[in-house]
């Protein structure tokens, strides 16, 4: 039987609604809107689209959006000066530097400067440590979104075997930590993993986050497994088409024949990234004002 489709787009829309309600309540309590600053350097077309979507979603949720689009030639010093300025700005509750940065810029040095309590991407050392120590903090949006989809589908994850394919700072590593914190048994697989198909066959939960189109094949998936596809890869255009198709890291049609549930691309994990970003920015705003975030905000 074909797997159920996990509708990330619908889940994200519901989360954005809840964030919108909580943002209105924040405005009433704090006498100001929660504010999210997004910094984009250069003209990478995909990043421009994502930053535009983030700005629109922020405003739609009733929050203030501060967009900083800097030219490709921006120096490390200029970018760091902007981050310092945003750290000091009381109207800014959350700061996100869109990745990847142009090659000449040192992303680690820029991220290290972000005030951890405004670090809505959860990439600073302080938030990495808070995640590892199971403390309150701000954690990376895509993995948090994946956890919400998994909890909705599977409930308690205790004792489940999860394989995370990919070990990036933005997805693979925090994803594995969140799964461990939820008492799953976690394997992190990567380019040096031996017999990856066999490793994946042992998983009840597969998180694919490698950035290689349709790498995970249907015969790697255990029957009934839950497959979360984080990859967003654009294929070369077919003859006569202006744009190539978007595919994930999982061969969707094959995997769907075997899995119990699977996220599609597009419409799966991607929309959760922006919804969780809004959630993180609002949580940061409540904490910034010394207020407890609303209990009904996941
Ligand atoms: N600082 C950060 N940079 C980047 C992050 C991040 O979380 N923080 N994530 C990605 C890109 N990203 C947000 O920035 C993002 C990617 C995809 C989507 C999304 O909704 N995708 C749609 C398809 C969109 C399309 O048609 O192209 C989907 O999957 O349905 C949202 C956000 C890298 N950089």
TrEMBL record:
Organism whose genome encodes this protein: Tsuneonella litorea
Catalysis: reaction(s): (6R)-5,10-methenyltetrahydrofolate + H2O = (6R)-10-formyltetrahydrofolate + H(+); (6R)-5,10-methylene-5,6,7,8-tetrahydrofolate + NADP(+) = (6R)-5,10-methenyltetrahydrofolate + NADPH
Gene Ontology cellular component annotations, sorted alphabetically: cytosol
E.C. number(s) listed in UniProt: 1.5.1.5, 3.5.4.9
Lineage: Bacteria, Pseudomonadati, Pseudomonadota, Alphaproteobacteria, Sphingomonadales
Subunit organization: Homodimer.
InterPro entries found in the cross-reference section: Aminoacid_DH-like_N_sf (IPR046346), NAD(P)-bd_dom_sf (IPR036291), THF_DH/CycHdrlase (IPR000672), THF_DH/CycHdrlase_cat_dom (IPR020630), THF_DH/CycHdrlase_CS (IPR020867), THF_DH/CycHdrlase_NAD-bd_dom (IPR020631)
Name under which the protein is recorded: Bifunctional protein FolD
Binding site for NADP(+): 166-168, 232
Domain of life: Bacteria
Family per similarity comment: Belongs to the tetrahydrofolate dehydrogenase/cyclohydrolase family.
Domain Tetrahydrofolate dehydrogenase/cyclohydrolase NAD(P)-binding: 140-287
Biological process (GO), any one: purine nucleotide biosynthetic process
Molecular function GO terms recorded: methenyltetrahydrofolate cyclohydrolase activity; methylenetetrahydrofolate dehydrogenase (NADP+) activity
This protein's pathway: One-carbon metabolism; tetrahydrofolate interconversion
